[in-house]
Amino acid sequence: MRLVWAAAVLVVLAACTSKKQPPVAVHSSLADSADQVMYGRSFNLTDQGLMRAQLVFDTAFFFDDNTRIELSKVNMTFFTVTGAKDAVLTSQHGTYNSRTSAMVARKNVVVVSEDGRRLTTPELLYSQQLNQISSDSAFVLTEPNRRLEGVGFRSDPDMKNIRILKGATGIVRGISTEPTPAGSTPTAASSTPTAPPRR
Questions:
Q1: Which of 16, 55, 198, 199 has its CA 20 to 30 A from that of 136?
Q2: pTM for the whole structure
Q3: Is 34-189 in CATH node 2.60.450.10?
Q4: Distance CA 103, CA 153 (A)
Q5: What is the pairing mode between strands 50-63 and 187-190?
Q6: Which residues lie closer than 8 Å to 147 by C-beta, 6 or more apart?
Q7: Which residues pair with 87 in a beta bridge?
Q8: Domain residues of the chain, as ranges?
Q9: 97 contacts: CB under 8 Å, gap ≥ 6
């Protein structure tokens, strides 16, 4: 009888210890020092009354009298002067500065234009005043008939005109290019693909 009783006690104890613990909310250290915290909101970024971009985020932490905003899960849509959708930027994190009207996107940054260009880079700066995206980091730009790589670039948000700062390499319709030597003039690239040379 004692053996049966001991086995029953062990079963009850095992059932008690196997219960799932309640989930613990993920806490960001930014929330402790932020002036304000917002969740799941969006901002329209305008220039002289024209909407140039819409910034959507999962979480925003406001600092420095609400002039610096630390963002998570960033989604930014760019628009042309006529209001047409131009390109979409996504990143894991970002920092928007309302004094300079600029945002730095960080970690897994991807920009995709409406006509199929796709740029990836670890970090990217968007200047609202210049309506320009830029980076000093390594990047890869792909489109249906071209692939470009380099370190650093300056471009309009839809990447039709991109200026590569150094180390430019790429493939255009099967033609490979050599890296840009250090100290040489940066490469300016247009979105119009280069035709293969005639033989």
A1: 55
A2: 0.71
A3: yes
A4: 16
A5: unpaired
A6: 140, 141, 170, 171
A7: 78, 113
A8: 34-189
A9: 67, 68, 69, 103
